[in-house]
Amino acid sequence: MIVWIVLFPLIGAVINGLLFASGLWKKALGGDEHTENSITNIIGCGAVLISAIISTYYFVQLLSLDPSERQIIQELFVWIPSGEFTVSFEFLFDTLSCVMALIITWIGFLIHIYSIGYMHHDKAYAKYFTYLNIFVFFMLILVLGNNFPLMFVGWEGVGLASFLLIGFWYEDTEKAYAGRKAFIVNRIGDFGFILGIFLIFFIFGSVNYQEVFGMALDASFMSAVPAAVITAIGLLLFVGAVGKSAQIPLYVWLPDAMAGPTPVSALIHAATMVTAGAYMMARCNVFYSQSPTAQMIVVSIAAFTALLAASIALTQNDIKKVLAYSTVSQLGYMFMAIGVGAYAAGLFHLVTHAFFKALLFLGSGSVIHVLSGEQDIRKMGGLRKLIPITAITFLVGTLAIAGVPFLSGFFSKDEILAALYDRGYTIHWIIALITVVLTALYMLRVYLLTFEGKTRVSDSIKRYIHESPYTMTIPLMVLAALSILGGYIGVPDFMGKVVGLHDTNLFEHFVSSSILIDNAKEVGHHLFGHWALVGFSIGGAALGIIIAFYFYYIKPSAPEKVAKDIEPLYEASLNKWYVDELYDYIFVQPFSYISRKASDFDIHYIDGSVNGIANIVKEMALTLQTAQTGVIRSYATLMAIGAAVILILIVLL
Amino acid sequence: MFYVFAALALAGALLVISFKNPVSSALSLVLTLFSTAVLFVLLLADFVAVIQILVYAGAIMILFLFTVMFLNLKPEALKFESKNLPFKVSVLLAVLLFVGYFASLGFKKGLSLINVSSSNLEGFGTVEGVGTSLFTDYLLPFELTSVLIIVAIIGVVAIAKKRAN
Amino acid sequence: MNVSIEHYLILSAILFVIGAYGIIARKNLIIVLMSLELMLNSANLAFVAFSRALGDMTGHVFMIMSITVAAAEVAVGLALLVSIYSHRETLDIDVLKILKG
After folding, report:
1. Band of residue C73 on the pLDDT scale cut at 50, 70, 90
2. Bridge partners, residue A87, by sequence
3. Partner-chain contact A640 C20, CB within 8 Å
4. Residues of C in Cβ contact (< 8 Å) with B40
């Protein structure tokens, strides 16, 4: 029963929430904190673990099926029976959702384990695990739903969970504002998404995946649909993805979201929620493959995002902010792949990115934990000897994201670059290549400044440095192993042939069952063959690594000089190209002004009229009160007069 | 016959509202009730007439007299608050009277006192007739009035009880 | 003697009006209650008169109901009156106006 994958995190959240987070255990049942935390751990982590096991079970089931029929559908009940618009609660477990579910549950499980150590001293321990379980629940609904409304339920739900978790330490107003910003910016994307769903229903008369895609694949049906409409659907859905997956112009919430606890950043902003947009677009491949205009727009925005984010990441000094911008940049890569129609490549990068980005975030969390809250990399350094496990796993993650050969990132990035070039998007390929260089550069910078060289840590903190507990280091090691080995499920054919294997791209074959149209047109100017492209990407990575090595290891004083030489550029990059300030000026200020004016109007006029009516009634009541004299005689007199009047009226009429 | 007793009834009524002494007013009311009972007999309502004397003149007026004597009331002075009040009131009531008369004129069209010897007037006004009507057609109101009486008894006991202060 | 029904009705109306006058014009509470009885009595007269005119026993039955109600009402009224007198030592309805407002 697929529904159990979804239900277990919900049950965990409900139990943890009602019993522990609400304070019931402590206040009403007089329990102690130690058992509370232990039970919370077991329920919270256990729920996700059970979901992971069930997902794996169904994965094995899928493998035993014929590739053209790899899908399991389970319907629970009819949710909205409204004539033509009938929506049921039904789940679809095909190869695409299988991949997503496995990522969400297993990496989610690792992050739950990690959180046991990281949040150990936090007061709102149970609330944290409740929120995490709620998040996993909604994310699973998103990827397992079999129709658009259900996906949207999950979409909104993860937005909510993200808000709750980003603003987890809400006593600090700045952090609460970060949560609010995330939710609002997300909402803007959701607006486009909803419009897209409306348009889909309008054109296709249904919101169920099988029905809609079936109609969309039917050439005779589609000949009646204008191309502009398909483009519009694609673009509206893309707006939703822009919001959720932090592309230009709606990426501004992601860096601010670093205000939340680091495991939250790992789970939500590295592995899962931000990838929801990519999943959605892969699911809707039928639309995108039929609309070249939409594809061009997607790729262009994605390429620009990747480059812009990488340029900002170069100068940031907060370790988590670097990783945040890195996430935006890597998401750009995923969308570039999806934009050109190489859906499997994009998803492959999604998977590998989940591995190494989660690893990087958890590693940085370990560093922050060890340094008692320090996040500025200028105040770190020389930590490799002190916290070796963290350092080595972080190095693995860094090399993976940079695209060093034989690690997972290399295979996935390379496929994207190959797809860009082969399908004729040369300019975008060049931009992606430049971004490879920048990625390697900034990631190595972070590693070198944090772990190598002379230590710049303040003495008061240095005394307390010791390696993180097992609950934190074991997930790091597991993720490092995955970052190294995970790439081998998707080795491209031409590489596999070298060692005599055929059909090595297991991942692509698996996922292709769910991709209904894959327009792999190979456009002709093949200046460079496969191996040349690989050489380019390795060269780019190497260039980045060498530059970083020079600047930050060999000659640590060099960066400052360069920064002074190109000071305006440096300042702009450091200040995120002033995008937030621009948004504030254009949108936020006028809107606050209008809101204030509206509020004044409401208080003055509307409340005034309501109160005024109440006052009128009161005045009338006071006037009529004078008739209540209490003297019976006048009552009787009035009654007699009244009776006389009625009699006269009866006689007259 | 009618005019005699009608005059008596009117006289009694006028005396009720004129006497200063409450006891005298009560006795005048008794006179009015008796006269009305005779009028009932003239209307062939024997049973009702006897009931009127028994209950109304008998029980209710005795109750009044008991209360008056129990409270030991003194005759009041017929003072009115404003000089114009009785005049205004009289005018008002004269209007009522005229209207009532004209209203009753409307009934002239269909009604007149039916002759006794008509066949469908068997047992009209006798105990049998009243009893039959009371216990068949109007059983429910009958039961409800008994409830009403019980409520009244309870109410009276509750109100007139001496509070232990 | 040919007395038509209008005579009874006019008599009833006059008695009613006299009763109404008694309620409005007298100060003593007991007199007011007695005038009330007078009004009820006049209504009963009208009932019986119409019953005779229509040949229906309904009027008689209603008259009995009316007497019953009048009895109950007098009982309660007098109980209240006794209670008021023991409290306020007066039965002047112009003085008893706590229910003002």
Report:
1. very high
2. A80
3. yes
4. 45, 48
